[in-house]
Design the sequence.
């Protein structure tokens, strides 16, 4: 969280208080919406551990190859 | 002969199909030809790809073809799909045409080439049962291969009618077909209100009149679906009864005080992002998404967009302030949509005023609305009254580290007390272990709420504000100013050194007596000092005699109180110290705030108290990287009474492993995952894929708390009296 938020430092440090407040609030709001939406998409929320992450990566690699259903 | 080779090779180059065989064949040719062919392979720098105009055949010719070739019930969508399938594939049509025009020995004329058969199949795959509409009555073959061949003939005829062939009537090769430009058939967009009737609650559902006189209708640039449309008319609707005007992205109405107000419509399809520039929501959302995902500034997005648009036909360029406007407009809609309300502000506000007002209305003092209702298995667990595990009897053993290891005892002050308490806790742990499988002892008569956790953490950055003591207003001049408007006026021409009343010298911020301080400040804050290699060579907190470095006042990060730092001068502005966030373990951000002077436990406690005013709203555990300090301050200031019934403050594992050796309070009360079963809700027993039980954290605490380099291990050991008081309380 902190490292992600820290990425905005170069943008935020030049802002006045009004813009700073709105920008940060909008980003955190968007982030929260994003996380909740991802949880809904997953449907089966579970504890994140290293094994799960590895499984997800493996699943991503299995991109199904599709073809026309033709007999020639 | 050469022209044929050249054209074939150009085709291959265009399609990226140049292979080793082509090169070796070319190598056998004579030298001048070789040079000419290889010259074609030199990559060319091309901005916009060349295009050919959209087929401009008379409509009657096209209409006759459709009537004679397709079913009479064929839909417009199907016909257009066929046309655009041809215009989208100039490469395929070139390949097909070449096969229809044999030039060399061994080449045969093929009517239904493999290229065109592939296109036909793709079309049939897309159209499914609608494919039949591409054949006249009783013309549709039963077998699929015949359908494909028949469709190939129709597509070939249509391509010829549309002049989408690289050969002329005398079968001379004209050159590769180019991608087709759709400029000629672009629809003409207008920007209109998105309601047909007046929506004012005090008015009837009257129709809206087009309110702008023809000569006054603004013609603007519109970015829609990544295409730039010029001279798009912006139309305004007006209700003649209540005078409310309806625009593409807002409504302008009189509020209860008869003052003109503006409602920012969440349902707007286009947003005004410049004086004469509008954009669709796809563009504005892409700005928001790029800033969120890439940490892109408005300038970076501007450069990216202008750079990628330079390869299209358009010469239009956007500006930084238009990107910022798109961000503000889109973020207002995003946040207001979650509340199911349009944002209503006074009319004629500047963009800076809009952001300020938007935060005061939608910002909710930093509390993120969607997070309030949020609950998931990562941040909420069923309450367990007793432990169902016993891994290590020592109360200072922590999950993930001490499953099979001895725990180092507390060193220094309170070591004896800690050793005694450890013995007592070990005995209690043994008793708990005996009851683990006792179902009666584990039965609950009371239904408890779920156990929840939040993570509090800070990051050191913040906006600049007025330098005057205790004032946090915006700067009057953000580029070089030090005061807000009020203090700029009150200081006027006075020297900016504290307590100096002399007038300042022209073009400086100091009087004659303090010119030396001013010059030093200028050198320290010059570009040569603040950026570049000098800053890289200078380590933080290093102050060597040869370095001009800025001698800042010591910033207390973790102090218990909120110290007022006396500035020696007001040459530059002050700055908020840090941003504090409260997150759920799943990553949902619950709230944030700014701390002006330090991330003190008092500030954290005040923030948490504001965030969780009621007992029901409070989480069971609050993880803070310096929870022991917060707990110490809470007990000392009696704020602990507020939290004692509902909440425990715990640290993260990294902090605990290091701090438990030296700090009694941290060791005793802030363990994030005790293995002796004293906090059963922090650890749960799970099963691996083979069904074997193992223990894991009930909540994820370390993902969001990164190593905080600003935490100082300056522990103020409280007196024995306070610790006893604390032990009694807890």
Sequence:
């Amino acid at each position: 969280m902190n490292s992600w938020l820290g990425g905005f430092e170069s943008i935020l440090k030049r802002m006045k208080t009004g813009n700073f407040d709105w920008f940060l609030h909008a980003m955190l709001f968007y982030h929260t919406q994003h996380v909740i939406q991802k949880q809904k998409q997953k449907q089966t929320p579970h504890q994140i551990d290293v094994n799960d992450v590895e499984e997800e990566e493996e699943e991503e690699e299995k991109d199904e190859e599709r073809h026309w259903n033709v007999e020639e | 002969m050469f022209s044929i080779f050249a054209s074939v090779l150009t085709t291959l180059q265009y399609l990226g199909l140049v292979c080793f065989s082509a090169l070796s064949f070319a190598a056998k040719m004579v030298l001048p030809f070789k040079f000419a062919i290889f010259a074609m392979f030199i990559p060319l720098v091309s901005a916009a790809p060349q295009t050919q105009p959209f087929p401009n055949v008379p409509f009657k010719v096209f209409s006759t073809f459709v009537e004679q070739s397709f079913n009479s019930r064929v839909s417009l969508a199907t016909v257009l799909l066929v046309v655009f399938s041809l215009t989208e594939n100039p490469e395929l049509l070139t390949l097909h045409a070449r096969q229809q025009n044999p030039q060399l020995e061994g080449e045969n004329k093929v009517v239904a080439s493999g290229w065109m058969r592939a296109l036909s199949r793709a079309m049939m795959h897309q159209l499914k049962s609608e494919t039949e509409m591409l054949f006249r009555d009783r013309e549709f073959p039963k077998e699929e291969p015949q359908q494909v061949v028949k469709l190939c003939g129709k597509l070939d005829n249509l391509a010829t009618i549309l002049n989408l062939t690289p050969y002329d009537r005398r079968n001379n090769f004209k050159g590769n077909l180019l991608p087709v430009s759709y400029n000629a058939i672009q629809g003409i967009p207008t920007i209109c209100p998105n309601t047909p009737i007046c929506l004012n609650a005090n008015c009837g559902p009257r129709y809206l009149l087009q309110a702008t006189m023809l000569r006054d209708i603004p013609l603007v640039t519109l970015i829609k679906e990544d295409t730039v449309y010029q001279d798009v008319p912006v139309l305004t609707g007006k209700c003649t009864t209540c005078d409310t005007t309806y625009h593409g992205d807002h409504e302008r109405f009189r509020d209860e005080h008869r003052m003109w107000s503006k409602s920012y419509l969440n349902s707007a399809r286009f947003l005004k992002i410049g004086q004469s520039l509008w954009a669709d929501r796809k563009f504005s959302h892409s700005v928001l998404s790029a800033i969120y995902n890439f940490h892109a500034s408005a300038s970076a997005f501007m450069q990216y967009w202008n750079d990628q648009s330079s390869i299209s036909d358009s010469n239009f360029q956007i500006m930084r302030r238009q990107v910022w406007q798109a961000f503000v407009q889109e973020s207002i809609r995003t946040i207001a949509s979650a509340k199911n309300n349009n944002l209503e502000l006074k009319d004629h506000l500047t963009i800076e005023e809009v952001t300020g007002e938007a935060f005061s209305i939608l910002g909710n003092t930093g509390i993120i609305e969607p997070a309030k209702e949020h609950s998931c298995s990562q941040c909420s667990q069923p309450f367990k009254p007793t432990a169902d595990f016993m891994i290590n009897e020592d109360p200072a053993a922590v999950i993930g580290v001490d499953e099979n290891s001895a725990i180092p005892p507390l060193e220094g002050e309170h070591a004896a007390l800690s050793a005694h308490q450890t013995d007592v806790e070990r005995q209690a742990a043994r008793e708990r272990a005996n009851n683990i499988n006792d179902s009666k002892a584990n039965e609950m008569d009371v239904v408890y709420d779920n156990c929840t956790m939040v993570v509090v953490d800070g990051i050191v950055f913040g906006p600049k504000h007025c330098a005057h003591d205790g004032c946090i207003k915006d700067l009057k001049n953000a580029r070089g100013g030090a005061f807000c408007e009020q203090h700029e006026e009150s200081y006027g021409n006075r020297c900016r050194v504290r307590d100096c009343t002399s007038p300042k010298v022209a073009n400086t911020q100091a009087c004659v007596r303090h010119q030396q301080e001013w010059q030093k400040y200028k050198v320290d804050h010059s570009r040569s000092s603040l950026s570049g290699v000098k800053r890289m060579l200078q380590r933080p907190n290093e102050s060597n005699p040869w370095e001009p470095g800025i001698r800042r006042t010591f910033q207390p990060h973790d102090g218990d109180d909120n110290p007022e730092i006396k500035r020696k001068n007001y040459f530059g502005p002050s700055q908020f110290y840090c941003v504090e966030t409260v997150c759920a373990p799943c990553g949902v951000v619950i709230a944030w705030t700014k701390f002006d002077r330090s991330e003190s436990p008092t500030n954290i406690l005040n923030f948490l108290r504001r965030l969780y005013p009621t007992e029901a709203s409070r989480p069971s555990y609050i993880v803070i990287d310096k929870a022991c300090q917060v707990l110490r301050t809470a007990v000392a200031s009696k704020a602990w009474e507020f939290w004692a019934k509902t909440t425990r403050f715990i640290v993260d594992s990294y902090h605990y492993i290091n701090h438990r050796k030296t700090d009694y309070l941290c060791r005793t009360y802030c363990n994030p995952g005790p293995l002796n079963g004293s906090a059963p809700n922090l650890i749960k027993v799970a099963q691996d894929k083979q069904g074997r039980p193992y223990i894991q954290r009930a909540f994820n605490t370390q993902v969001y708390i990164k190593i905080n380099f600003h935490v100082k291990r300056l522990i103020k050991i409280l007196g024995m009296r306070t610790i006893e008081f604390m032990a009694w309380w807890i």
Remarks:
- The radius of gyration of chain B is 37 Å.
- The longest strand of chain B covers residues 451-459.
- Residues 259 and 346 of chain B are 8 Å apart (CA to CA).
